[in-house]
Amino acid sequence: MQLAIASDHGGLQLKTEIIDYLKEVAIDCQDFGTYSGESVDYPDIVMPVAEAVAKKEFDLGILCCGTGIGVSIAANKVSGIRAALCHDSFSARMAREHNNANIITMGERVIGAGLARDILATFLHAQFSGGRHARRVDKIHNIEKKYCCR
Ligand code: RB5
Question: What pLDDT is attached to residue 150?
Answer without folding.
Answer: 53
